[in-house]
Amino acid sequence: MVPGMSDGAARSRAPGDASFPPDGERWCDVVMKGGVTSGVVYPPTVMQLSRRYRFKNIGGASAGAIAAGATAAAEYARRRRAPDERARPIESLGALWEDFRGEGFLAGLFRPEAATRELHRVLFAALRPERWWMRALRAAGAFLFTTPWGLAPTAVLCAVYVPFTAATGYELDRAGAAAFLWAVAELVSALFFLLHAARRVAENGFGLSSGMGEGDRRALTPWLHARYQQLAGLDPATPLTFGHLWGDGDRAAQEAASGQRDINLEVIVTSLNELRPYRLPFVGEAFYYDPDEWARLFPREVMAWIDARAGDEVPQRGRRLRRLPPMADLPILVAVRMSLSFPLLVSAVPLWAATPTARDGRLERLWFSDGGIACNFPIHLFDQLLPRWPTFGINLVYDPPGTTLDDPDGAQSVSIERDVSEHEVINHVDTWRAPRSRLLAFVAAILETMQGWQDHATTRLPGYRERIARVRLLPSEGGLNFHMTVAQLRALWNKGAAAGRLLVEHFAPEDDAAVAAAAGLNGWERHQLLRFRVGAALLERLVRRLDAGFDARCQAVIARAPTGADGEGAFRSEAQREAALALVAAMAEQARRLDALPDDARPEHGAPSPRPELRGSPRTHG
């Protein structure tokens, strides 16, 4: 039996119940953070975890969603093996290394369309790990010598000024005036270039690249489709769907409750029109897509699958919109592609929906962009007050500029934060020496705080921090470093493997029984104890606050409220009202019992810090 799972829990698992692991199996969840090219870290992490665990819930945002999809595909293939082979670790993800190490592979994933190629060339010239002035020179050179906008002033100078001076006998010392006029012309041309490029980017779905690379199979989306199908062992014409992962069962129950799914994949996407995140697969929302728009974003095989299972056409302003297929029939590639729409780099994905602002009952287009905009590290995705198996997180943090580290196997670059005193500073503003660089770092810290303060605060909490592997990256690694050397890529890969080994050693070492016998509790059991302590303290605060608000006036309002009404908050029946009153009254009574206890006997006394809070939060964000 798996350590940490009681006999009663094991016996309560009904045949076919997907909410409990079978005897002899270890389950885990894994959540991966966004970070563009930093996703190289994740495949070796997953391979190491797979040596001791089967993956139940898998989640991520942005680049983490890419790895989550790959993990789900590989786990799906593992569960289709013969029973005696299912315990073998996942090794198929190792094939991704051969892709990553290919010359120009990472940059080539983001192949631009013809309309955005010039801006793509200029920006990517500036994305090399060099000093700022070298990056500026590269960008300027790319503009001046590879774009018509940059070449035009030079061509005019050569075609007009030089023959003019030769014909009129002007001295060459007047070239200074020509240089000034040329510089002004280049600046004006650069301004018009940017305005033109901005329009082209907007027309391209607000991204330099659609991910399709004009049909190039090495571009991001076709590559993902091919790899997911290969990892899952499926034909390209049969895309891996959420239904494949969920397994056999009641589709309605599986869509409503993730616990009924054999493998549960969830990714974060951001609806920019609504200023909010969503989880995919959607639950209960009605969205529509335009087949013509999506044909530019997804491979032909995927579109054929979606169109064959979509709802009826809904004419809208000259468009032929169709309702998305049931979530069980939606390819996971669609969810991953929506989550990885890196702002301005990869085109956003449009969906249509009925909204309060739409006029005359029309559907309104909503732009879905990178999940990391709203939540880059959704460690809360599969959280439970008392978990039945661990949910691991892989967090990526950057070392300050100038850091060097001789760490060939990655072991010195990974850690688990067991105490709040070990929490590191994320943004190293004062590490930069030049005032200009410090100002930029200060602005970057503001933007990071706006985007990720909840993620950073959550990773400090007890019950979270000790199950998160923190991977330190050098400034030249991951992120927007599309031109990493093979040595740098190997360093990232080794760090990922070290993170996986560290989590396994902490939670499920090979000598698990010996560790438990020596220490009394193994790593997973210590985590269960910690979560119980934190959960009990949370519940104490909850019942105390509930008791304070459950006064005579509140009870009088509830008692005279009508039943069977359709109003917001109305009880559907008298039995429902009585059950709710009994539940709250029991909790209020428990609060009064706690008040009678001495301070050191209350669950909250001496609970681990910092103290988390229980509060209402939309499901789309947790």
Defining traits:
622 residues, alpha/beta, nine-stranded mixed beta sheet, three-stranded antiparallel beta sheet, 21 helices, globular, disordered N terminus
Explained architecture:
It is built from 21 helices and 14 strands. The protein is an alpha/beta fold. Strands 1, 2, 4, 5, 10, 11, 12, 13 and 14 form a nine-stranded mixed beta sheet that branches. A three-stranded antiparallel beta sheet has the order 6-8-7. It is globular. The protein starts with 6 loop residues before the first helix and ends in a 27-residue tail after the last helix. The N terminus is likely disordered.
Q: Note the overall shape.
A: globular
Helix run count: 21
- Mean of residue pLDDT? 85
The quaternary state of the protein chains shown equals single chain
Helix fraction, binned, reads 40-55%
Largest sheet: 9 strands, mixed
Q: Approximately how much beta-strand content do the residues carry? A: 5-15%
Number of strands: 14
- Secondary-structure-based class equals alpha/beta
Rg value: 28 Å
Distance between the termini: 31 Å
Low-pLDDT runs of 5+ residues are: 1-16
